[in-house]
Design brief:
Layout (H helix, E strand, L loop, with lengths): L9 H23 L1 H23 L12 H20 L4 H24 L5 H18 L2 H16 L1 H10 L2 H16 L17 H25 L4 H12 L1 H14 L4 H13 L1 H12 L4 H26 L17 H25 L1 H12 L4 H10 L6 H26 L2 H24 L1
Helix pairs in contact: 2-3, 2-5, 2-6, 3-4, 3-5, 4-5, 5-6, 8-9, 9-10, 9-15, 10-12, 11-12, 11-18, 12-14, 12-19, 13-14, 13-17, 14-18, 14-19, 15-16, 15-17, 16-18, 17-18, 18-19
Keywords: Membrane, Transmembrane, Transmembrane helix
Pfam family, one: DUF4010
InterPro entries: DUF4010, MgtC_SapB_SrpB_YhiD_N
Length: 447
């Protein structure tokens, strides 16, 4: 048997040796000057924050600024030196120098308040953070210190934008954001991460993590509509409302079509876009929970989504007007804790029923459960089947079940469009829905 060999030219060996030698020299230089490099980074991080602070106060006369680029650069360097002194001499060097910087800053801010009546302490906090970043760069990690300094500079530089967002924020939106944090960082870590119940199908941690996933996507969808504004019209609203509540948008637009029949074509396009957005959501769930399921799920969902998107765009091109309609208001806040608990209970119930039906009826039981669940919701059954496909059911069964649930759910929304909207709205929505259903089921069955 012939053995393949590779000829290495002397020039190649020489180039490789030269490159290795240069790398060794660079490594030796960095190792020999590690402390100097860390102090230089501490100085530059302070200068970065100082540039932002100095730019804000650039119109003030020399001496009126409490801390500009020079002061912040020196404070960053002082933080690095404090870390070195603490490590080499005494443990109290860093806290003593930190308190000294804080005291000097407080005296300066106190003197300034008597003249300018400015009670903001943001600059003082930035100065103290600069001192800490210098210490982190020397004693802990250069990358961490750099990242923190850049984020601090960005926050300081966007005062007007941050305050503007705060002024636009409504009370129920703030409440929703806090509840999202509560169910994520407070409740999730407290739940046991182990299987329970029949067949150990119930994992409290994973069930609640899926609840958090649903809540986060709804939260993003809500603010996508909020930020876009009504001037973007039905096209934008329908597309992004699918992330939050396509059912709510379907009902709203159907009713709107009766009040403004001249816009029923555009409203139908908005409904189709919202319903089509359900399919990218399904792919996101699969990619996060069970990526191996994604190749089988990709074709049916993309085809079903395309058969809704394309008619929507065609209707839009034929009937687009300069008119705008009010954006739909969600029927309920998707981040209400009660809603999250109900979703978690529904998810657990579907997983239990799925296990029992799988043992009793096999694949037929899964399909029956998917069709029944799709009458009310797609997210719960999608998450359940995706989770079950990890261990208990095969991928084709999970894919067909998800497609069945999505098809039934879109049929329900087609019924809402026909029942609450104009007859033309019902036809424009129902036709693409049936085509999407037939194509998705055919592709999923073929897999």
């Amino acid at each position: 048997m012939a053995i393949a060999t590779r000829t290495v030219h002397p020039e190649g060996r020489a180039a490789t040796a030269a490159g290795t030698a240069m790398d060794d020299v660079a490594s030796q230089f960095i190792a020999a000057n590690q402390t100097a490099i860390e102090l230089a980074v501490a100085l530059m991080l302070g200068a970065l924050i100082g540039i932002e602070r100095g730019w804000v106060a650039r119109e003030q006369k020399s001496g009126e600024r409490i801390a500009g680029i020079r002061t912040h650069a020196l404070v960053g360097l002082l933080g690095g030196i404090a870390a070195l002194l603490t490590e080499a001499l005494v443990a109290w060097a860093f806290p003593l120098l930190f308190l000294a910087v804080a005291a000097i800053g407080l005296v300066a801010w106190r003197a300034r308040v008597t003249e300018h009546r400015d009670y903001s302490i943001t600059g003082l906090i930035g100065l103290l953070l600069t001192f800490c970043f210098g210490a982190i760069a020397v004693a802990i990690d250069l990358a961490l210190a750099t990242a923190c300094a850049v984020i601090t500079a960005v926050i300081l530089d966007n005062k007007r934008e941050i305050h503007g967002l705060l002024n636009k924020l409504q009370a129920h939106e703030l409440d929703a954001g806090l509840k999202l944090l509560m169910i994520t960082v407070v409740m999730l870590p407290l739940l046991p991460n182990q299987g329970m119940g029949p067949g150990a199908v119930l994992n409290p941690y994973e069930i609640w993590w899926m609840v958090v996933l649903i809540a986060a996507i709804s939260f993003v969808g809500y603010f996508a509509i909020r930020v876009g504004g009504p001037e973007k019209g039905i096209l934008f609203t329908g597309l992004f409302a699918g992330l939050s509540s396509s059912t709510a948008l379907t009902l709203h637009f159907a009713r709107q079509s009766r009040r403004t029949p001249e816009l029923d074509a555009l409203l139908s396009a908005g409904i189709l876009l919202a319903c089509g957005t359900m399919f990218p959501r399904i792919l996101i769930y699969a990619a996060v929970i069970h990526p191996a399921l994604l190749p089988r799920l990709l074709l049916p969902t993309l085809v079903m989504g395309a058969l809704l998107y394309l008619p929507a765009l065609l209707i839009w091109r034929r009937h687009r007007l300069a008119a705008r309609v009010e954006r739909p208001t969600p029927i309920q806040n998707p981040l209400e804790l009660r809603t999250a608990l109900l979703f978690g209970a529904l998810l657990a119930l579907i997983m239990l029923l799925g296990e029992w039906l799988r043992e009793w009826l096999g694949q037929a039981g899964i399909y029956l459960l998917a069709a029944a669940s799709g009458l009310a919701d797609v997210d719960a059954i999608t998450l359940s089947l995706t989770r079950m496909s990890l261990e208990r059911i095969d991928a084709p069964t999970a894919v067909l079940g998800i497609v069945i649930a999505a098809a039934v759910n879109n049929l329900v929304k087609a019924g809402l469009a026909a029942g609450f909207g104009t007859p033309r709205t019902g036809w424009r929505v129902g036709g693409p829905m049936l085509a999407s259903l037939a194509a998705g089921l055919a592709l999923a069955w073929g897999l």
